[in-house]
């Protein structure tokens, strides 16, 4: 039974959006939290889990990261790959696009200097997914997770993420052993009034 955010639903959503607004989507800027919070890191290997249209993947690759970009929507991956191709080989050759389900896809242990996962709804346990993705972070590496809360705490009204289970700060803290990680986590109010709050988690694995 679909919860509205399973693979087929995302594939239909992406196919329609990209058919109608493909050029606009290809021009989307990378996530502002990612740019502000990890922009100063030295490039290495990165994983973008739930890469969607690829704006963050392409920004990382342009900054010199070797990126593994995972999503379960072939339409989103095809579009992102085509955008990378138009940018050119300097960026396109630094990305491996992987069709995979983050409900079970598991990174190679300690492979990545940066693992990011932005706005991914998980059907099962967000804590389990964060724990699995965190297993891919190398010693000294960074885990960067953002989730949009489904209810605006200021108004009690549903946000555009209503009905989804995105990662919360409590989920991330439950997934990460505080003895092994330096964790910075905060809720940030979105700039557009009424759109609610994001949980932003940046955790660095101690050496
Ligand atoms: C809201 S979009 C966010 C895309 C991108 N991270 C961003 O911040 O713009 C969520 C993305 O996660 C993907 N996704 C959701 N659940 C997934 C799963 N179980 N496995 C792989 N990808 C998934 C969707 O296809 C979609 O591209």
Automatic annotation (TrEMBL):
Keyword Transferase (UniProt): yes
Ordered alphabetically, the record's keywords are: Methyltransferase, Transferase
Q: Which GO terms describe its molecular function?
A: methyltransferase activity
The family database entries (SUPFAM superfamilies) matched by this protein are listed as: S-adenosyl-L-methionine-dependent methyltransferases
CDD domains under this entry?
A: AdoMet_MTases
The coiled-coil regions, if any, are: none
GO terms (BP aspect): methylation
Q: Which residues form the Methyltransferase domain?
A: 47-141
Name used for this protein in its record: Methyltransferase domain-containing protein
């Amino acid at each position: 039974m679909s919860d509205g955010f399973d693979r087929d639903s995302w594939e239909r959503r992406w196919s329609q959006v990209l058919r109608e607004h493909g050029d606009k989507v290809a021009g989307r800027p990378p996530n502002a939290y990612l740019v502000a919070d990890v922009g100063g890191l030295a490039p290495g290997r990165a994983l973008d889990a739930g890469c969607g249209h690829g704006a963050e993947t392409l920004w990382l690759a342009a900054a010199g990261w070797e990126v593994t970009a995972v999503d379960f929507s072939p339409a989103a991956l095809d579009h992102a790959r085509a955008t990378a191709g138009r940018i050119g080989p300097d960026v396109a050759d630094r990305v491996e696009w992987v069709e995979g389900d983050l409900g079970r896809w598991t990174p190679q242990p300690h492979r990545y200097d940066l693992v990011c996962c932005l706005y991914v709804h998980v059907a099962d346990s967000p804590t389990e997914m964060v724990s699995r993705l965190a297993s891919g972070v190398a010693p000294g590496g960074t885990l960067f997770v953002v989730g949009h809360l489904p209810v605006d705490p200021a108004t009690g009204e549903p946000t555009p993420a209503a009905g989804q289970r995105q990662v919360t700060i409590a989920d991330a803290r439950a997934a990460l052993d505080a003895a092994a990680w330096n964790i910075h986590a905060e809720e940030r109010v979105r700039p557009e009034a009424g759109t609610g709050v994001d949980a932003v988690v940046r955790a660095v694995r101690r050496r």
